[in-house]
Every structure is written in C-alpha cells, then in structure tokens.
Write a structure and sequence with these properties.
CATH superfamily: 2,3-Dihydroxybiphenyl 1,2-Dioxygenase, domain 1
Number of strands: 8
Number of domains: 1
Number of helices: 2
CATH architecture: Roll
Helix content: 10-25%
Radius of gyration: 15 Å
Low-confidence stretches: none
Order of helices and strands: EHEEEEHEEE
Mean pLDDT: 89
Shape: globular
CATH topology: 2,3-Dihydroxybiphenyl 1,2-Dioxygenase, domain 1
C-alpha cells in the first residue's frame, strides 16, 4: 500500500484573521502549531491526506492555488456563500466536472471541483 500525505505552505498576512476565515467561513478544522520549534502557524486539515500550513512567512515551496474536491459542489457553493465567501463566478461546468472558484482574503485561489463523467450511460 502506498500512502502519500500532501502538505502545502500558504502565506497569509495575519494568522488570527486567517484562522477566523478558514474556521468560520470555510468550516475547516484548524489548529495553532509551531514548526521547527520557531515558526508559528495554523494547520488546516483539508482531508485525511491533505493539510495546509498557514504562515505569515514566505516559503520556497508555498502555493497560492488550492484544489479541493467535493461530492456536491452546489451544496458547498450555497453553504459557503451563506457564510460570506465571495465567489469569482457562479458554478460552471468543465470537462472534469462542476467547479466553483473563490479567493481567501490574502489572494490565495481556491477551486472546488465535483468530478463528473459526462459520458456515463
């Protein structure tokens, strides 16, 4: 069995504000932590294998484009919109499935994708 955990650095300007956005608006589980014994940050658990580390510092391997998967993109869209998330546009259909896009207050871009096979009989 092959297991691969995914860990991404995401830069934010203010940890307290970021914690509130990721917890209250996005509904994600967060935990304040310190890495390497010195850098404070917030660990955001996306799913069983994927974590974001929110930090105020720049990292060489950081990302600002995050792809999340969903079982029900429309439900997520309505839930997140009711919590104050501002979307770039309404849900749209791609070859890969239904998707929605938004940014966090720090300019990090999120895509939520509900994968669909439009060729199923």
């Amino acid at each position: 069995m092959s297991q691969s955990a995914k860990f991404f650095y995401v830069q934010v300007k203010q940890l307290n504000d970021a914690d509130a956005f990721y917890t209250n608006c996005l509904g994600m589980l967060t935990e304040s932590t310190t890495i390497s014994g010195k850098e404070k940050g917030i660990l955001v658990k996306i799913d069983q294998d994927t974590n974001l580390f929110l930090t105020e510092h720049k990292h060489q391997n950081q990302t600002n484009k995050i792809l999340l998967t969903s079982d029900d993109c429309l439900e997520d869209y309505c839930r997140l919109k009711s919590r104050g998330v501002v979307f770039k546009k309404t849900p749209s259909y791609l070859n890969e499935g239904l998707s929605i896009e938004f940014s966090d207050p720090y300019g990090n871009d999120f895509t939520i994708l509900e994968q669909r096979n439009y060729n199923e009989d």
